[in-house]
Every structure is written in structure tokens, then in C-alpha cells.
Structures
1.
Amino acid sequence: MRNVVACSFVLLFALTPLTAQSNRDWQDLYREAIAHVAKRDWKPAEDKLLAAKKAGPPSGRGQIKRTFGRDSDYFPEFYLGVVYLNTGRFADAQVQFQIARTRKIDIGEREFQQLPDFEARANEFAEAEAKKRAVIEPKQRYRGFMDQAQKFLAEGRYDDAETAARQARGLNVENGPADDLLRNITRSRANARVQALLKGSPSLQELRRMLSEYEGTGASLDEVRRRIDAMETVERRATAERAGMIAYFNGSYTQAISALAEAEKAGALTPRGHFYRALTLASLATRGKVTNDNQLREARKAWAIAMQRADEFKVDLRYVSPQLLDALRGQ
């Protein structure tokens, strides 16, 4: 029953310029695969569609960005379904068409108008095959679905793997291994998504959202937690250092010293933190009739550390009295 579907697709986007040059690889694969489908070259079409799925974003509407005109839809599952339908893999075609449906494929688009007809044909032939397989023991069918799910999982095709694993689970043959496999698929998909998100240098807010979203999925979140801890430490230190700076300018020197000590508990002071510690200690040391030599010595130590990276607070220097600067410089 091969080559039962005549494919005729208008490749409206084949010559449209793309704005995202970094995405040319998967978009080129997708475009070339559609050209193969139109020529009924099923093997290269399948290879390129699978490669595009692995390299590209999730399928959906408007995923192919245009410099001019409306963004184009990206549904490799639709074309994979066509390939499978024409190569006698009717159950696989059903799976792909189902995924395309769940991703909100628009059959009103000219490119995808034949989907209902393709689904009807896939269902018809799959039912015919099912009748032939009726004599096959459920355990054999179960093992076939499990093997297929494992294969898809190894290839990173998580949606396909989940569909096959759920088909195995639906047979109620050996539910334990099927449930374990479904959990493994969920965990592997979550891990893949977490790793992809971490490559984008997420903000603290994004990391917290990621932790909330993927906690409980089985994904490894150690790196997410480590980054959150590091960023929260920096945030606490920055808040305390700012409090110390404000207290210094308000003349609350004891409060400033206390705030800077809190900042130091969170992590090593920044050059600006050392700068305001030096100013505060120097102000305390010189405010009386007699200079407190111990405080001034500590102030100069902090000053020396701060001045190693003076560019980070050079704007702040204009707010400091010349007398205090002279005291810190030992003049």
C-alpha cells in the first residue's frame, strides 16, 4: 500500500529571506525536506525532517520568522506523517498527525489543507493492519511499543517516545516498566529543557521560575539551585552595601559599619564596599579632637583595597571632602 497519497505542496516560503541567520540550518533542512516530499523522495525527506525536529524549536504557528510578510508555520510532524503514510507506516503516520493537531496546526492554511484526508487514509490503512495483527499476542505488541519508545527516547524525540510508551501502557500487559519508562521520558525531557534554558544565562527571576516549574519532574536542578544561591548572595551583599552607603551619607557611621559587616557575611566586599568602609572608619577616626589611630589605620587598609579598582567608584569620589581624602592618603 505504498505511495498511496499524492503530495502537491506549494512552497510559498522557499525563496523568502530569513532574518535569523543562526537558524538557517534547521530551516534549510525543513525546506529541503518539503521539496523531497513534493518529489516523493521519501528517505531523504524523512532524514531531513527528523534532523530539523532535533535541531529546531518546537513545532507551531509562526515559528519561521520573516523579514517581510507574515511568519510561516513550522510543522515537521505533518510532513513526517505524509512520509510514513506513503511508506506503509500507518500507525507512525497517525502519531505524527496527532502531534501536529496538538500543536495547533491550522488546516485552513493552504499548505496543510490535506491533513483531514491524510488522517482518514492513515486511519483506514492502520485499521486494516490492526485487523491483520489481531492474532498477535498483546505481549508482542507491548514489546514493540516499548522498543519504539526507547528508540525515540535515545534520539531525543520525547513526544514520540511518550506516545509510544502510552500505547504500551494502554495494553495493560506490564504496567510497571511502562510507568517507569514514562517517568524516565518526563525526566529526560525536563532535563533537556533545563539545560537549554541554562545556556541562555537566565536572570534570578527566570531561575526561580525554572525551579518552580521543573521541581518534581525528576530533572536535575542542582545547577539551577547553585546559580540561585550565588545570585541571591550577590543580591544580599549589594543591598547591605547600599544600606551602608546611605547610612554613611546620613552621618550614621555606626549603622554604616554594621550594614557593611552584614554585606561581608554574604560575601567579600566589592571595591565600592571597601571604599565606604574606609570613608566611614576615617570619619569616625577624625571626628573628635583626637584622631583615633586604630580606626584610621583600619580605614587606610580598606582604602588600599578599594583603590586597586578605583574605576568602579570614581564617580563617588566627588562627594567626599578633600580633608577626608587627605587623611586616607596619609597626607
Note: The chain is about 65% helix and 0% strand.
2.
Amino acid sequence: MEMKHFIGKALIGFLVLFSIVLSACVGPQMLVAPEDSVSLVQGGPQKGSWESFDVLLNYQYVYQSGTLKLNFGGGAKRGYDQLVIWISFFDTQGKFLQTETVYNSGFREKFLPRSDSHEKIFEIPMESTQFAFHSMLKKRTSRR
């Protein structure tokens, strides 16, 4: 009976170890839900807006196979020391492909007024079918 328990515990231990190694090899897969992304439409220009807790971003894009030309403007909803906005690209299943920086203030507050516009051109994976914005805002600290 003891040999049976030993073999059972050894098998369970092996399966746990194998699962850990396998998950480390595959790595985490970032997926995006359809309601959190925007479908890429060939040609354009296509217009839209994106709002988070920290930012309101108005954008216009032209998508041609492998290239996205993005014009954007907007404003932060509160004072900040640093603001970064990224755009991530996903395939038809919502699987993450690539992230690019849209805007980085450095350590100063200077996000564009809503009427101003910047332009960026991104080389993106050919299998991209959708994108999503995300941001990080470091709240303004009091200065003396």
C-alpha cells in the first residue's frame, strides 16, 4: 500500500512541476475584449474618441496595410507630473501583438489643448485587426 501512495504522490508532484514549466514556456497571453477595442478599418480617415479616468483623447486615423497614421489631441482630466498614453494592437482573436507610445509628457505637464493635434505614424504587425488605448498618469505632487 505504501508504494501505491508513493507513486501517486510522485505522479501528482510531476504533473504540478510539468504544469509550472509549461506555463512558463507559453507565457501569459494578453487578450482584449471586443468592447474595449476599436476595429481597424482600411483607408480613412476614421474618427473616434477614447476616455479613461485620467484622459480624454480625440483621434483620427488612416490605416493602410502595416501602417497606421494617427492624429490626436485631447486633455488630461486633472493635474499631473507625468502622463503616458499607449496604443496596443491585437489580432482577430484579441491576442496582443504590439504596443507603441502615443504620447509621453516626461516629467512635466504639457498635454495638448483639445484644439491642437499631433501626428504619429506606426509600423504595425500585418495581422493587426484592432487596437486599444491605455494610459498612466502620475498625479501632480505639491511643489514648494
Note: The domain at 34-139 is CATH 2.60.40 (Immunoglobulin-like).
3.
Amino acid sequence: MARPFAVLLVAVMLALAYVPAGSVRAEDDPPWQAAPAPAPEPGPAADPPPVPAPARPSGSSIPDDAKCVVSGEPWKASSTRVDAILRIDGQSRRGLFLNLAYMLIYRQMAEEAHHQVGIESVRVLDFPTFGTDHEQMIDINEDWSNVAFLKTDKSLPGSKEPYFAAFSSTDDLQKAMESIGGKPKTYEEVMKMLLKALDGGDSAASIDPDPLDGMRKHPKFGD
């Protein structure tokens, strides 16, 4: 009788040892770590980052810690600073620049990033007033007759090359020529020189006339 009982005991033990895979309990499993989550599907390629856009609308005031939109340097520290109203993709925005060259560099950067940019108005610091208690910006008028520039090789405070100092008075310009040297230039001459340099050409035919046309089309300046 003992032999059949032993056979039955072995059969029961074998049956208990076999547990279908679907019935395994979590507490019976050995320690384990969850598989890492699958990586997200790659989305569409991101657009190229836009050029730094002027952060303030055209009618806003200028804070004391304002920065040049191109270089990020202090705007009010520049003796050749420019305050321009730009038309960017149909919206008027204010752009602050260390000098006229940076204004045109910004315009070129924006166009290369497929933005539409026009220059509606330009104000430049009257150089003799820089650092005084009565600094004045010159609102360049429609025919550019109220401003003249001095192109100089001398480093000008807070600015970058090329150096063009702006003057509302020819007397002040003459005095500056005696002290820092240089040659007088009209606004149109300055713009053409800068555009030619940016374009890399040696002839007037390579100059992009759009900024000059924009100035002629928008005779109102300032905020």
C-alpha cells in the first residue's frame, strides 16, 4: 500500500510545480526593473531660430538698460547709437543699434531668415551731446537735410567700426574734424558705403536701394 501512496504524492508535487505562465503572481517573481520607455517618435524638423527681434513696439519708451538688438551691448553707452522703427513682417517694431552698420546687419540677417524687413524711420544720437545732461537724438527727415556725418578712424565711445558720428550742426562737425579727424559724409553716402560693404561689391550697381527707398516713403519719424 505504501507504493501507490508514494506515486500519488509525486504526482501531486509535479502538478503543483507546473504553473501556467499567465498565473504567475508579482510577488513570486524575482526582483526586476521595468524596461525603459520607448523613445518618442521624432517630430518634424524645427524651423531655424529667428534672428533676434526687437522686443519693444515702436511706441514704447526706452529703458536705461536697453541693449543693442544685434550685439547685446549697452545701447545708451554708444556715442553713435541708432533708434530705428522697422517694419517686420507687416508690424512696426523698434530696433536699437550701436550704429548704422548694425541696423543694416540686422536687416540682412532678417532677410536671410526669410523675414520681410523695411526701415520706416531712423534717429541717431547728435554726437556733441553724448555724455551730457541733454543728449539729443536727431530725427532724420525725409530729404536727410538735417543731419551730417563724420567718418573717422578714431575709436568712438561705446561704438564699433566703422565709425560714423552724427551731427545736427555743421559748426559742431567742423570742430569735431579738428579734434578727431575724418571726412564729412551725407546720410545717403553713409548708407551707400555700408550697403556696399555688406554686399561685398565694389560698384554702386551692387548696392541694395531698399533702405533708401524706405526712408523716402516714410517721412514721419520718432514715436
Note: DSSP finds five helices and eight strands in the chain.
4.
Amino acid sequence: MRTKADLSVLLRDNPVSHYWAGLIAADGSMVENRLKLQLADKPHQKKFAQFIGANNKAITISAQDPLVVPDIRKKYDFRPKKTYNPPRIRLESNSLTVAFIIGFIDGDGSIGFQYGRTDCILRVKNHQSWLPVLMNFHSVVCQLSGFHSPEPKINSDGYAAWAISNNVILKWLKQQAISLQLPVLQRKWKRIDLQRVSLAEQARINEVRVTELQKKGYGCIDIAEAMSLTKGGVSRIMKRMKERE
């Protein structure tokens, strides 16, 4: 059933429009003059229907616009049979791209807990043709967050796989979703606790503090006393920092 809608809102350069475009890249399709989207999460589909001014009771959103859809496809390089033909444009490192990535994660990603731990892990798995796209996403997230994680790769099953277990990056992504006021899937993102400090995060905090004290002329013993650590603990931090130089 065709849905009456204003698809031109997807052409706007604002975070929410880019978020929905990212979700369409993952879960929707645009062929010729038509957009189709059917989400398993019906409340979320209703949010999108409201965004484009469509009937929010439809099982599948199917809207046609011969003037606007071609422009949307061109803007995001949406292609037919997108599973095997991902977009080939390279996204810039800015907040609009972050919104697009978060939308894509809501469509094709999952956020769960690591086995036997309270640390979260984000996973995205796509057809192997999507590896360049995931590499682009990875580059943008690492550049803007200031932290690094393992690059996406082709896994043993032949899929393009992107995983982020770095708690700092995951919290950064959630903070971006909040600050950009994106209509994200709360059931997915609520697993990331913004107040939690992981062991890796604490190690990073300790390294920053050790560097600050070294610049002030503190020696190993003085640093240990100032940070309530053992001398051996400070020595290990210094050794780890030196090995990365």
C-alpha cells in the first residue's frame, strides 16, 4: 500500500534527517522513485512515519516521489540491490556523518554485553561488499572520538564485521546520540552506562595523570603517592607508555 509522505525532509542537512538516512541504508530500500521501509520495532517505525508525515499505522512504509527520491538516492548514493551494491561515497568526519552512522547501527547493529562481563560490545555484520563502508565508519568514529579500536574485517564466515568493545568509544557514541537529539532505539543504547569506568578507561586516565605529573617534575615515588598507587604500578604504567612511543 502506497503511503502519502513528505520525503523531502530526508534531504535536509540536520542530524535527525541523516540518522533516518543511515537507518534506511541499513534496513530500507530506494529503487527508482520509491522508498520502502519495514522495521521489526514498530514503535520506531511509527517515529519514522511521523517524521515524514506518513500513516503511522501502516505495516510497511512505501512512499513514492519521482522528484525527491532520485535526489535522496544521489545524495547518499543509494543503489538497487544494496546488499551487494553499497554506497561508494566517502563520508566526511562531522556530526551529520556520526548521526548517519548511529542510524545505521540502529538498523544493522547490535549492542550487548561481553561474555561474563558488564562491558558492552557493539557489533555490525554485513555482506562482504560493505567492508569499505564499515572502514569509513570506523575511521570517522576513531578520528572524532580520539580513540582507536580494531578495524572492520572479513570474518571467518565471509561477512564484513565491525566490532567496538572500547567503553570510551561506546560512551562517546551514546553521548553523540544524546547531544544531537537523535530518535534512537532506547532498548539498544540503554545498555551503555555513561557512568561506568572500565578497566581500560581507568588505565587511560592513569596514563594521562602520570604524564601530567611527570611534566611537573614528579618522580616515580612521588607520582605513586599522589595517585595512591604502588611504585610498581606506576612503573608499569610508564613502561607501557614508553613501549607505545
Note: The radius of gyration is 22 Å.
